[in-house]
Amino acid sequence: MMYQHSWGPPPTMSSQGMTLDRHILERQRAIPGATGDFTGLFQQIALAAKIINSRVRQAGLAGILGLTGEKNVQGEEVQKLDAFAQNVIERSVEAGGHLCVMASEEADDVIPIPEKYPTGKYVLLFDPLDGSSNIDVDISIGTIFSIHRRVTVGRNGALADCLQRGSSQVAAGYVIYGSSTVLVYSTGDGVHGFTLDPSVGEFFLSHENIKIPARGKTFSVNEGNSQLWTPGLRRWAEAMKTPKPNADGSMSVNSARYVGSLVADFHRTLLKGGVFAYPADAKSPSGKLRLLYEAAPMAFICEAAGGSASDGTRRILDIQPAKLHERTPLYVGSRDDVAVVERYLREG
Ligand code: AHM
Ligand code: MG
What we know:
Layout: E1 2-3, H1 10-16, H2 20-29, H3 37-58, H4 81-93, E2 99-104, E3 111-112, E4 122-130, E5 141-149, H5 159-162, E6 169-177, E7 181-186, E8 191-197, E9 202-208, E10 218-220, H6 231-240, E11 244-245, E12 251-252, E13 255-256, H7 262-272, E14 275-278, H8 291-304, E15 308-310, E16 330-333, H9 335-347
Parallel strand pairs: 2-4, 10-13, 10-14
Antiparallel strand pairs: 1-9, 2-3, 4-5, 5-6, 6-7, 7-8, 8-9, 11-12, 14-16, 15-16
Helix pairs in contact: 2-3, 3-4, 6-9
The chain binds 2,5-anhydro-1,6-di-O-phosphono-D-mannitol and magnesium ion.
């Protein structure tokens, strides 16, 4: 991974940088027969991310925290930020002619492409604003997206286009609205991060070819649920908290880190290593996170960076979804650390 700190503050970064658009375009040119469809779709997703970012940054000022039904200073109906993000993504991508259907964590059913627009060969699955319960307390939130090629024929896509294994994703990515706004994506051959320069309104390459360390020092899980876990998982958490002696007599200790916003917890895990877990428990036997909008895209990115992702026994990317809003336990991060938690789960 290349941290380009030498670029210095944003104005310098923009003058020297590789934009997200150019990055995707250059890769498209390297693929014989590529039509530019994917590049077009990606540009629209990046535009949506910038619009959502701008609203997230104004959230307090614009009085858009809280519930729908409120009026802003102009007397207009105020949307909740996650409803706003849903709307922005749909409006940004529906007209491009690249998609045949969409599905979102915020919508009960598949989202068709309006009749007035052409359709295309891709399918977009997304979580418009993940971690939205954290908005009111100024904690990082994010957008997650997953792109598949359609498997049905005809003008409109269908549920079958959305219910594909994670391994058949063409691309996946997320945007973190954190201390800076970063878009991370992968098409399966490398993972790249782009930081938004707000003065230019453009994403610039800042994290090239991210590789997750094979082992990390951080474990990330909501231990508030630990009484609901299996004994094996509780033993794993205890093991994570047990200092290990080093050869030189010093002690190694892990750090516990849990933001409660998947994008933030995953982003840290990807860059620094370690494991993020949202297990099944007695209250939620299938876990909390959604396979299509959360687990599968993060698993795709993590594997492309050299890490792994499991539901405890299976590779996340091998799971055939049976329904749109299916949930799954998720253990994702450094390869060795995911293997350790799988071992504890196996031992029960
Ligand atoms: P959301 O999609 O409703 O925002 O919920 C998903 C979020 C994830 O971002 C995060 O990892 C998890 O829920 C946190 O759950 P908990 O508060 O139970 O620890
Ligand atoms: Mg979510």
